[in-house]
Design brief:
1110 residues; alpha+beta; 8-stranded mixed beta sheet; 6-stranded mixed beta sheet; 39 helices; 43% helix; globular
Length: 1110
């Protein structure tokens, strides 16, 4: 569900929504839980090096600390090669970690099942069993301060009503000990959590928390345990209505609608072609077990769910006998058992564990084919918008660890890098625009493999299928070359040993990995231990050769596997219009079947629910949620060692931090000389540096060399406003990591990428353009809030305009034009790429950032000096003038988002239910609604209290009015303290003008606000939690670099912290005037359906200028 993604991660950053947006831009959605995968080998499909290449525009913001939302690399597989955070010290056990004796375990009602030291994560792990209920507990002890707790229930659904997903939302809406509306939100407001979330898999539901503060950690644990075992929702029908679904009618003269947070969330999911493809493939691969239905909920089926079924599902599966509990970190393992015993002892044993077991899907005897349609705009050549994906179920039972590891290596060899043969051949074929399918998927009981292309011509569908099969046959016959094998081996082994999870807690990553076996009644220790199977695999490859290892896997699991489902997706621009007429008839039929008394009762119930949603919790309920005091909060910001020096006249920042002998390096170049008209070309320039060859090396050889010698290299632009300056900063950053002993290789390869790559491969560049265009179009559908935020910034400041040119609608329009231009004007494009290089690449204005321990920093200086000596001493051009903004008009970016209607009509007619979120004579679909203004222009002077206030607005006013009452999946605000832009955004929102009205009423909300000291303290502590968010050493070094680039001093950080800690109610009320600046002079951008935009322009004549995007 990612409930905090829209509240915590986005609360303190200017284009934080873009960062969330960019982070997942390459996800190949397979299930509700595609962001929380349990891969033994971290996947690097599409993201070998740190960053999504066409999604790399970064806009920095917080002057206090750069929170996890700035770690803008793809977290999908928790791979250090695709995340911003790099190596950090592994946790280790220490003599201070106490052990739990058998006697103590018995005292609290537990018995030890097994105990091991896990060398791979330097931890002592003990498996306990609660004697009364059979609940199993993994207690992992080490010296990692980032403590993790998680409780997981096996929750296999029998249909697509979405019970697991709705329960996941609902149990966090109050409980026995914490009887307020949403304790979860109170924890968001006033906790130092480093992770606070819940998510639904196809067969299990997870509730994890993390914190570095022990008191805070145990507070979080208690709230979550009480929530899952004793939730209010099982006795409160209104919570079920709010989070799941309900009929809504404001007045008898209006039409009935559907509302519900999960219902609306899933409408958004069901409107994205890639999501439709993934869901269709999964359900077709598993027609006979629980994976054949949607645990998240199908909008056409969710309204069939009754409250009684909801209650029974909780009673049956949310029981200790069906639970697995995980603890990790440096807290007292005895205290863990004491806390658990208070809850588990209240239950008797249950048969739920037997009833929830997942039955494996038997393999087919022959392949199957499915054809589906998806909504497409009427513009463009629809004949080239088909999608085709081949999907295999690899076995009818779970695989052993060695086979899993071998398949992971094979997956990386075939797809893991731009040079990998399957990926390269598909993209170079010209048959499609971008790869779809996620390769190996192993988060469920049985593994799958998927691969295909999108942007395919109808006549080329069969050619894509044949090309895939021919490539598999060729790889089975010829094997992989030695360089490719060495590169994959180094990349994967580096990744496993580094165990870098970025801002994602290591303990949670290990929990998800362990749970992938444990949840199916297998050994929870095995997935944590990779050294022996890795050693055995390497030995086998050395003894037998790679072909003898990998070719039989291709033959068995792909070529000779009859369990193949081919899914073809066809674009259809008429789906929405055809269904609209049917929908109107259904709406009229439903309403006409109700009596006046029925309608009056429905209107009364609607008003009653809304009143409950908008009524604040009583003070005594709020005080029930445990919290810290200000005395628990450090008075100074987190210090990062930062020595500023120079080498050969170039500024060098050194961060002396323990990194397990890994060196992290950034070379920063000034982009201010790039001509304005060339800015949209910069992301493709960055990709070309990494994915084109040199005079002596093909791009495949260069790619393999990077994989063999380093932990990864990335190149991307960074742009930000600077407070007090009109001109933004704009840089190109080359980022790399390697073992310190290979620093020479790292800097040599960085130089090679920068200076020796040739821009001569026209066809590869055309592939880059097509891939980038396909990704941008996919982002428009799934993450419209990021597009809206970028567009608003582009109307309000130069930094926003630059970023939008390189990653917004303007960039998409540029790509569409460029795609046609590549064939006729390649020489001009190639020359422009070379001009960008000459404009950027110079020793003058360069800056080097290094993070490692002191010894390795000293030994690296000679390699840095050599690298700098090879750079040109002067730049090609003078500083360019970038004084540009988009017109300050309200804008609606229209996209088709009505796919789910195709699946709904016959079902809704049969059930005689109202249409999905229909109002009057139109269809309401999910929108993304934004409004923003520069509040510095109102005269507002920055004070640290603004961070507290903006977070509080998101967690209260916008949460209650946009999400809870309005039915959107998220509503939040964001203050970019560098540019002064304060913005409001909503996510998967059924409303448009109504949401804008909520934004405009924010100032009055602040003026009328009544806040006691406890509430204010929670708001302050929650803000400090964001500011002090947990970072691994490489992220600390990178954050320090960003502060240096933006001129943020330690003195300013201290001053802002003091202002945060001294925030008063008076500050909230005074901030109302600044917020009114958004109401009075703000610009609005909505990514929305044509029907909602037309309705808005009818109600408020000419309110939006309309731009058709898809």
């Amino acid at each position: 569900m990612e409930r905090t993604a829209l509240l915590r991660s986005l609360s303190c950053s200017s284009l934080a929504c873009n960062r969330i947006f960019f982070r997942h831009s390459h996800s190949f959605t397979r299930s509700q839980i595609n962001h929380h995968r349990r891969r033994l080998i971290p996947s690097t499909h599409n993201e070998l090096r740190f960053l999504p290449l066409s999604s790399s525009i970064i806009t920095t913001t917080s002057p206090l600390a750069l929170p996890p939302s700035l770690h803008f690399f793809n977290k999908r597989h928790f791979s250090p090669l695709v995340s911003s955070a790099a190596i950090a010290p592994q946790p280790s056990t220490s003599s201070d970690v106490s052990e739990v004796s058998d006697e103590v375990a018995q005292k609290y009602g537990f018995e030890k099942v097994s105990e091991e030291f896990i060398n791979e994560c330097k931890s002592k792990a003990t498996l306990f069993k609660h004697k009364k209920t059979g609940c199993e507990i993994m207690s992992v002890s080490n010296d990692d301060e980032n403590k993790v707790f998680g409780i997981v229930f096996r929750t296999p659904p029998k249909d697509s009503t979405g019970i697991p997903h709705i329960l996941e939302h609902s149990v966090l809406c109050g409980s026995r000990k914490y009887p307020l509306k949403e304790p979860f939100v109170e924890l968001l407001k006033g906790s130092l959590h480093t992770f606070l979330n819940a998510f639904t898999y196809p067969d299990r539901t997870c509730y994890p928390v993390a914190s570095t503060n022990t008191k805070d950690f145990y507070n979080l644990v208690d709230v979550y345990l009480d929530a899952v075992f004793f939730p209010k929702c099982v006795n409160d029908h209104q919570i079920f209505q709010q989070e799941g679904w309900h009929y809504e009618l404001n007045d008898a003269s209006e039409e009935i609608t559907y509302k519900g947070v999960v219902f609306n969330e899933m409408k958004g999911v069901y409107s994205q072609p890639d999501s439709i493809l993934g869901r269709t493939a999964q359900q077709a691969l598993f027609p006979n077990n629980t994976y054949g239905v949607d645990s998240g909920g199908d909008p056409k089926v969710i309204p069939k769910l009754t409250f009684e079924e909801f209650q029974e599902f909780h009673r049956k599966y949310y029981h200790p006998s069906n639970a697995r509990i995980w603890f990790y970190g440096d807290d007292d393992p005895t205290e863990r058992l004491r806390i658990l015993s208070e809850y588990l002892d209240l239950f008797e044993a249950s048969s739920a564990a037997k009833e929830s077991r997942i039955e494996p899907q038997k393999l087919f005897t022959g392949p199957k084919r499915i054809i589906e349609k998806y909504p497409a705009g009427e513009g463009g050549d629809l004949k080239k918008k088909h999608m085709v994906c081949l999907n295999w179920l690899l076995s009818d039972n779970p695989l052993d660890l060695e086979t899993e590891l071998a398949l992971g290596f094979l997956d990386h060899l075939m797809l893991g890098t731009p040079a990998s043969p399957l990926r390269k051949i598909l993209l170079e074929s010209g048959l499609g625009e971008a790869i779809i399918g996620g390769g190996i998927e192993d988060e469920l009981l049985q593994p799958q493999f998927s691969i295909g292309l999108k942007g395919v011509s109808e006549e080329d569908i069969k050619k894509v299928e044949e090309l895939c099969m021919d490539t598999f046959k060729k790889l089975a016959e010829e094997g992989f070359d030695t360089e490719a094998l060495e590169a994959s081996m180094n990349t994967i082994e580096f990744s496993l040993r580094e165990n870098n999870t970025g801002s994602f807690p290591r303990g949670l990553s290990l929990m998800l990995r362990s749970m992938g076996k444990w949840i199916y009644d297998m050994d929870p220790f095995d997935p944590l231990k990779y050294e022996k199977p890795l050693k055995d695999l390497k030995a086998r490859i050395a003894a037998e050769g790679s072909k003898a290892v990998f070719s039989p896997l291709i033959e068995k699991f792909i070529l000779n596997n009859p369990h193949l489902v081919t899914v073809e997706m066809q674009p259809d621009p008429e789906i929405a219009s055809l269904e609209e007429e049917s929908e109107k008839a259904v709406l009229q039929q439903v309403k006409s079947s109700m009596t006046e008394e029925d309608l009056a009762e429905l209107a009364r119930a609607t008003q009653e629910l809304r009143l409950k949603q908008e009524t604040p919790d009583p003070p005594e309920a709020l005080k029930s949620v445990p919290s810290l005091s200000l005395q628990d909060i450090p008075k100074e910001p987190i210090h990062v060692p930062n020595e500023v020096g120079d080498i050969n006249g170039v500024t060098v920042l050194r961060h002396d931090l323990f990194t397990n002998d890994v060196l992290y390096a950034e070379a920063v170049f000034n982009m201010s000389s790039v001509k304005q008209e060339l800015l949209p070309l910069v992301p493709l320039f960055c990709q070309s540096l990494l994915e084109m060859g040199t005079k002596d090396l093909s791009f495949v050889q260069l790619n393999q060399l990077i994989g063999r010698k380093t932990g990864g290299i990335s190149v991307y632009p960074l742009t930000s406003s600077v407070r007090g300056r009109e001109d933004p900063i704009s840089h190109m950053i080359v980022r790399g990591k390697a073992m310190a002993g290979r620093a020479d290789d790292l800097f040599h390869l960085m130089n090679c990428v920068l200076q020796e790559v040739q821009f001569t491969d026209q066809q590869r560049f055309k592939q880059f353009v097509s891939q980038s265009k396909a990704r941008m179009e996919n982002r428009l559908r799934g993450s419209g809030h990021g597009i809206a935020a970028a567009r608003m910034d582009a109307k309000l400041n130069v930094a926003g305009w630059i970023s939008e040119q390189m990653g917004g609608i303007s960039y998409l329009e540029f790509l569409r034009t460029l795609e046609e231009k590549v064939d006729r004007d390649w020489n001009e494009i190639s020359s422009s790429l070379e001009e960008i290089r000459k404009s950027i690449l110079s020793r003058n204005g360069c800056l080097i950032n290094l993070t490692a321990d002191g010894k390795n920093l000293s030994e690296t200086e000679g390699h840095v000096s050599k690298f700098l000596d090879l750079l040109p001493s002067t730049s090609f051009a003078q500083s360019a003038s970038w004084n540009a903004r988009l017109p300050s008009t309200n804008e609606a970016i229209v996209i088709p988002t009505q796919l789910f209607l195709k699946f709904c009509n016959h079902e809704f007619q049969r059930l005689q239910l109202p249409a999905i979120s229909g109002v009057g004579q139109r269809l309401v679909v999910v929108n993304y609604v934004g409004k923003a203004a520069n509040i510095y222009e109102t005269g507002y002077q920055l004070d640290g209290s603004a961070y507290v206030i903006s977070k509080y607005i998101s967690n209260t006013w916008l949460w209650d009015r946009v999400r809870v009452s309005g039915g959107a999946y998220g509503g939040f605000c964001d203050f970019d303290t560098h540019s002064g832009v304060f913005s409001f955004l909503s996510y998967r929102d059924p409303n448009l003008l109504k949401t804008l009205d909520v934004y405009d009423a924010t100032g009055n909300f602040l003026r009328e606000l009544e806040m006691d000291n406890d509430t204010l303290t929670k708001a302050i502590i929650g803000t400090i939690g964001d500011v002090d968010s947990y970072q691994l050493p490489d992220a600390k070094g990178y954050s320090s670099l960003l502060r240096h680039l933006m001129g943020i001093t330690e003195e300013e950080r201290q001053r802002r912290r003091e202002e945060i800690l001294s925030t008063s109610v008076k500050d909230f009320k005074e901030f109302a005037d600044a917020i009114d600046g958004v109401k009075d002079r703000g610009v609005t951008v909505a990514v929305a359906s044509s029907g909602d935009v037309d309705a808005a322009n009818t109600e408020r004549s000419g309110f939006f200028e309309v731009k058709q995007a898809l």
